[in-house]
Structures are given as C-alpha cells and as structure tokens.
Specification:
The complex is a heterodimer of chains A (110) and B (139).
Chain A lengths: L2 H7 L3 E4 L10 E4 L3 H7 L4 E5 L5 H8 L4 E4 L7 H10 L2 E4 L4 H12 L1
Parallel strand pairs in A: 2-3, 3-4, 4-5
Antiparallel strand pairs in A: 1-5
Chain B lengths: L1 E7 L8 H12 L4 H21 L2 E8 L3 E9 L6 H5 L8 H5 L7 H8 L2 E7 L3 E9 L4
Antiparallel strand pairs in B: 1-2, 2-3, 3-5, 4-5
Helix pairs in contact in B: 1-2, 2-5
The chains are: A alpha/beta (110), B alpha+beta (139).
C-alpha cells in the first residue's frame, strides 16, 4: 500500500519529508529502542515511535524504512525534520497513542 | 579498497555518518542487498558505541571481493569485562543516552548476530578496538 493512501485513511499529519509519500509500505514496527529497530525492522516499514531526535532519521535511512510516525501529537526536533527533508523520508504525526495507531495500521495492512 | 572515518565521542548529531557513507560505497560496488543490510546494522551499532562511550575513534573499512573487514579503534574508558558487555540487556550508557532510545544493551549482540567474525580487545583507561568481518555472499 502506498504511504499517501495510509496517511489519508488514518488521518495522519505530514510533518516533513513530503517527497517520501509515494513510497510503498510493507508493514509497521513499533518501538522506542533504536537498537531494536536497527536489529529487527525491515525495509519498507513505517516506524511508530515517540523518539523525536535526529538519530531516528539516520536509522530510518540506513534501514530503508518507508516513514516515521510520531505518536501522541509529538513533533520532531528541528534537526530531525531537516534530516527528513534531506533523506526524502516522511515524518508523520498522529494524536493517538502508539497502541491505538499500531492497531489501526495493522488492520489496514493485514 | 580502504576507507577511513573519524568518529567523535558525544557527537550524536553525526552518529551514523560513517555507516551511511559505507552503505553508499557498498551499493556502488554492487554488494548484495542482504550483505549491505547486515554490515550496516553492525557498523551503525559499533559507531554509536564510540559516540556513546568513547572520546574519539577511527573506523577503517577494508573492502575486498570476498569480505568486508571493519576495524573501529577508539580512545576511551575501555571495557573491563567484555563477556558481560556482550550480554543482551547489559549497558553502561548514561540516563541521557538511554532516554534517546540508545543503551538498551542490544548493540554488541546485534553486531555479533550480523557479522561472521567479531573480535574485541580493550584496555581500561586507554580504549577499545573492535574488529568485525563479513564474508560476502558472492554469486
């Protein structure tokens, strides 16, 4: 499924990295531990997290993730948003908790 | 082919820069996607270890047709007990570093799982040297 269709269906806000919206999404991964994502996420996944610093984008890029989705209305730090623009990887935001949005994303992807 | 990168302790803003460069180089050299993926995971973890624990370090990447060998040599506090450090979940990272989502004690296990050879030597008060090798899946 295309990222922009997911954004629409789940009423997500695109915070940065609009260029990345055409990406194909394979699945999702929910975690706030960077090494967990580094070790276990797969390319094409949407990463659901509350981490808002620049290192998140470094990992998203190294792992070829489809997007980063911030929960509970969190906003990225400026350096993270900048990095997202550079990498062309979208940062999305939702008011929902990680549990709630993970459930919704799971429903439309599985 | 050999490349060298410098890593600065505490510089989280640039953590992952060497990994990102190496990923690009391996892609250009047509290394298989599965090999690139595992090398990048291991290198990122080792690079972040220098940023999180050491004062400075040098990453040397030697690329041959059959293997990629990476040496990370840092000046830092060293590791008193390497077996303990290798244990999943063990970490000496500061609360600040943990708050960022690092320091879960998963880095070294991630490296071990993804590389074919891992050697760590360390001297307390001097620094740590990590050698890791991935044998490439050459078609």
């Amino acid at each position: 499924m295309r990222l922009k269709d997911i954004v629409e269906q789940l009423h997500l806000t695109v915070v940065a990295g609009k260029e990345g919206l055409e990406k194909e999404v394979s699945d999702g991964y929910t975690s706030d531990l960077l090494s967990d994502v580094m070790g276990n996420a797969e390319s094409g996944m949407i990463w659901i997290t509350l981490q808002t610093h620049k290192n998140v984008m470094a990992i998203a890029s190294l792992k070829d993730l489809a997007a980063v989705l911030l929960v509970k209305g969190l906003q990225p730090e400026p350096a993270m948003a900048e990095q997202a623009e550079e990498e062309g990887i979208a940062i999305l935001s939702t008011e929902l908790s990680a549990f709630e949005i993970s459930g919704k994303l799971y429903q439309i992807l599985h | 082919m050999q490349f060298e990168f410098e890593v600065t302790g505490g510089d989280f803003a640039n953590a992952g820069t060497a990994s990102s460069q190496v990923k690009k180089i391996l892609k250009q050299l047509n290394v298989s996607v599965s090999d690139i993926k595992r090398i990048v995971v291991a290198l990122y973890e080792a690079e972040v270890n220098i940023v999180a624990h050491a004062y400075s370090g040098v990453v040397t990447v030697e690329i041959e047709t059959t293997q990629v060998r990476i040496i990370l040599k840092d000046s830092g506090p060293g590791i008193p007990d390497i077996d303990l450090a290798m244990q999943q979940g063990y970490s000496t990272a500061s609360p600040e570093v943990r708050e960022m989502g690092f320091g879960a004690g998963m880095g070294l296990p991630n490296i071990k799982r993804n590389m074919d050879v891992l050697n760590i030597s360390s001297e307390v008060g001097i620094g740590t040297t990590v050698e890791m090798i991935a044998f490439l899946n050459v078609a």
